[in-house]
Structures are given as structure tokens and as C-alpha cells.
Amino acid sequence: MRILLVEDDLPLAQALQQSLRHEGFVVNHVETGKDALTALAVPDHDMVILDLGLPDIDGLVVLKKIRAKKQTTPVIILTARDTIEQRVQGLDFGADDYLVKPFDINELLARLRVIERRLGTADSAIISISTVKLDSAAHKVFVAEQVLSCSKKEYMVLKALMENAGRIQSREQIESRLYEWGEEVISNAVEVHIHNLRKKLPEKFIQTVRGVGYTINKA
Ligand code: CA
Fold it and tell me: How close is the Cα of 79 to the center of ligand 1, in Å?
């Protein structure tokens, strides 16, 4: 899941980025409304976390502009404005959710998971396929009830495949979920992560579709 974080409060933005990355999200950060609109002009993100008090354009105007272009990317508003009228206005402008600062990071993460479930095929934080269970709330993978030890990127690859079980994911699709802007893309990283995952997962759990990508069969 790729998140665009629009926040001009740098310490807050850094703390959020760190927590979100820890949860396996890919986070790109911009500080202004103008940069947010530029970033959102192409379909590169699955979700937007939007501060309202931005230095140039008001966050609500940013929201209005992206909705006017019929962009349906889910938006969670983060703001210090907490009157009922302002909340209603944010939701009326097309926000999917609204968090008032200061907020607890765990609440933000829970709300992101709700949106993630709505976007994806999973109907809970846990996806179970065969003997493999991925718990996106606990950020853990279990095989036959035993915790599987895997790196953050291995977890992200497995999550991408399990969320899309029954569908083929190309190497590029998986790659796009692993890297942030400016992060160096290692050319055969996806293959390496899959190779390592296969050593820990049941045989044939991840299947190669020659010339196309990878897939996991549905349970
Ligand atoms: Ca602000």
C-alpha cells in the first residue's frame, strides 16, 4: 500500500513516516498543497493522509480539487480543526475519514487498515491461505501457527501476493509496493525476496507464472 503523506509539520511527518513504514506501508511525503496536487496528478498512491493547515493551499481545497477530477483515492484528514462543522465539511468534500490532532498513532493505523480492507479482498486484518496466516495488525506471518521470521521487505512481498491471491502480480507491481521516492531500486530484489520466502513457506505456495509474474492460489 503506497501512502502519500501531506503534512508540513516535519517532526510529526517524520514520526508518522517511521510508524507507517514499520507497519509495511510505503510512504512518500510532501509538505505543500501544490506538491500534493502534483503527486496526485498520476495514479501512484493508494491512500492519502492530508493535513488541512498547509503553508500554501488549504487541505480542503486540495481535497476538493482531487475529487473534482473524479479521483477516488481514499483520503484521511489530519487536523487540529475540530469543530463539528469543520468535520462535516471535510467529509462532505469527499474525505473518507477524519482524525483530530493530537491523535494516537494506533488509531490512525486501525483506520488505515479499515480503508485497506475496503480496497482489497481481505475482510479482516488476517488473511489465511492454506497453513499460512498473515496478520496485518500484528505485522506477523505464521506458518502452521508458528511465527515466520522474515524481513520487512519479504513481509511486504508476501502481503502483496496474499492480498491478491488468485490474481497474478507482476514483478513491477510488487516492486512498486516496496520502494519510496528516491529509494534505490535493486534490480532483482523481488526475485531474491521470493527466493528467500520460498525457503520458509510451504512448497509451491508462491507460484511463478513464467514471463508474467507470481501468484498464490486462493485458499
Ligand atoms: Ca499543518
Answer: 7
